[in-house]
Amino acid sequence: MSEAEQTDSSSTTEPESEAESVSPPDPTWLVWSGLIGIVLIALIAGIGRLLHLTTYPPGLADAEFDHGLLARQASDFGIRSAMENAETLSIPLVAVIAAIGTITGFDAETPRIAAAIFGALSILFTGLWAFRAMGPVWGIAAAAVLGGSFWHILFSRLAIGSIVAACALAAFCWLLTEAAHRRDQAALPWYLFAGIAAGVGFLSAPAFRLLPLVLIGALAVCLYQLRQNTGPSEARNWLISTAAAYLTISPYLISHRDDLHQWTPWATTPGLPGENQTTIPTLATAIIDTATSLVIPGDRYIEMNLPGDAWLSVLMIPWAVIGILGLIRAWNHPDLQQHFSVGIGVLISVLLGVSAVDAGHPGQVLILGPALAVVTVFGIQTVIRWARVTTVRYALISLAIVGILGQAFISVQSYVDEWAPDPDTAPHFNASVIDALLATASLDTNELVIINADGYEMVRDYFRTPGRILFQSHPDALPFPEGEDGYLITANGDIPLEDRLARLSLPTGLRDDTRIRLYRLDGRIREEMPLSVPTVQYPNGPILHGNSEPSRIGDDSVEVLIAFKSPAQSPQFSVETRLRTSGVSPITTSTTTVLPANPLQGRLFQVLRVRLELPDQDQPLDLEIRLRRDDDTIVPIGGMTDDGFFVLNRYTFFTP
Length: 656
Hints:
By secondary structure, the chain is an alpha+beta fold. It has helices spanning 4-11, 28-50, 62-77, 79-84, 91-104, 110-134, 136-147, 150-155, 161-180, 188-202, 211-228, 235-255, 283-292, 317-329, 337-356, 362-365, 369-386, 390-419, 425-428, 431-439, 457-463, 497-500; strands at residues 448-452, 469-472, 477-481, 485-490, 501-505, 536-537, 543-545, 551-553, 557-566, 573-581, 588-595, 604-613, 620-629, 646-652. Helix 6 runs antiparallel to helix 7 (136-147) and helix 6 (110-134) runs parallel beside helix 9 (161-180).
């Protein structure tokens, strides 16, 4: 990465002579053309990132639900409440999601609209940074390089904090570049807003959390110089910038004063794996891993379906390498020495943060994206200025334009045709559950809708499903309302949506579902049921139904199906099911399943599937159950044994 002032210093440092270090100002028409071009690129990229947000990729990732739920909290109770519970979530992203949701409502697109906005703003600020540092044409080029990056496209369509941190870095660098070109009072506002941008970055992603320390370092150096020399000093400027940064982040620091770990970059970023945390001894290796990930492909990240491509595309690598070498050469530029040093401090702080957890992960390296785009364009500028022959210069310009446009074309094609439609992506992003849930909105009915989904509490909480939608969170215990029509939705991505909307009509029968077999729960037709026992009624508890023909699975296990009738508003039960031989030394195999509570006003069928291992013998086996309440007390059943079990039926299995 390079600070804006680095690029500025190197843009005025040419190989030909120091006399060329001061160039005439650009014509007004060129300045306005550059600004309009940068805005157009950011606008076009932003519109592109807003298209088909729930299709490419499908669903929402868990981190997007995390940010969306916190945004709902911010909308209901204020941003201060959200900040207290943010931990490592991106507070600026939460704030924008809350603002959008308050206006348009919280739906599947709301979190990603916020991410797309920050993605477009990062392109805009990157273009303005390069525009101020190198000139109008180079500002357009830098915006195009970042806007056409595959990784920037991908992560500006996912609501995770890294895209916000990338935007904050671009804004910080641009604002400091503007400040470096002004003197005295004119520079103060730019330093002020640069400090605010640094604070926003701190609140965006853990990898950015060393940057405020860089501002303190710059201030300390200026104060030392002021003490040694009574001449002009920039201490006031850096004091304003540092104060603005810490005022911006002070509510977060106060809210998390008891957990200083959250002040550091050694905290996981929601949406990224966060499993490989570096230590001080391994930090050097982690930095090397991050640096090499820019140009060398790595492992594919299966958990997010990310390809193992290098961060820089093949078309941009040569220019970026030349740009880095050119910046090293421009180190000692006298006019902007101090700002150049601050830029190096920014580079080191963000690089350390990016390398602190999951070094080399593209979602972390994304934060350096604006700087990499500016460095790449600086490499293009350096090579073109070195060219003495006009035809060679035009050839290089054409090569650079083709490379920038080619990168954008390949990136869009790779994203739309390869990454987003990959079937591995949809299950990870809860797509089938979200589709099923949203499909209920098209049902012209007030009947009960049951969604059979395990572990999708965030989906339920974010969309705030109405009371007529019941989430069943246990995959082996399906509920059905007694005597009531309704819909069953199974959350299986392999089943077409229309097949997941199974119509229920009880107690006359249940439709078979393609993922889990359902049986008629009618005690009058015993021969059609897989498990049947005499109906048992007991005080304040369920009614048990069943049959006498368990289905064998393989040679060593059996599957049985038990139906409970849970009373209205009944609590959660723990169901212990076992097969047990009789005799002095009984052989027992058992399993325990949680039977969900019944939150409805009416009784509810709960269909429980149980698989039990068969003991290796031919003795008769008793199928027994025991129920425990959530306080671990046993539910009394008439006729139960001393240990609380009730015999449903006795079976004889003959092992082949």
